[in-house]
Amino acid sequence: MRLSEIAKVTNNHVATTQRVVNVLVRFGYITQEGNGYSMGITSLMNAYTYLLSNSLIQIAQPIVQELAATTGLATSLSVRVELKQILLLRVDGVTPLRYRLPVGEPLPLYLGGARILAAALGPDDLQRLLDEAGEIRLATGEVVSHEEFIESLRVIRERGYAYGYSQRYPGAASASVPVFNRDREVIASLQLSGFAEEMDEAKMEWCIDELRRASNSLEQRLP
Fold first, then answer.
1. Residue 9 is inside which H or E element, if any?
2. pTM of full prediction above 0.90
3. Is 76 exposed, middle or buried (0-12, 13-18, 19+ CB in 10 A)?
């Protein structure tokens, strides 16, 4: 981004933006490239430190690895930050997917396995999510009305799991379950992902059972 673009996005005067940018450049949080700026190496180092030191990741890693080995499917652990899903941990399955869920990238809560996190939102946050989402369109092109989405969250809460086909990516299927803390608050989600043609109803039910076992194991190890 150019300096003028950063100033516009942050709603600051160009001179003020330049002073802040200079400090961030000095400490490596951003770097200058030609006439613009991009993220610096310090952000990567901080991200690496976070992945190494986060207690949830450390507790979940062997469980996620075992789940991936048992099912042969891509396995992931995610948390909610504001109204986005953030992937913390991913272990690939036996067959590589045509896409890879990106660690650290914010993803919408209204698609795929992230709906397990959306189902735990309070009324105000849910309304904010719907306001920001606008039209909810699946990878198939199908449009889900807000009323249908709210009803799907009720079903997810009742069942205790979420599953879907071709929601975020064409030809993909996923199942997810919540991870609770000691106060029975949803703090994360565990998800299995694979190809839709391989995950029929029986396979999906088996995946949900395996996810529940893994989630229970994780919850028992939480402080």
1. helix 3-10
2. no
3. buried
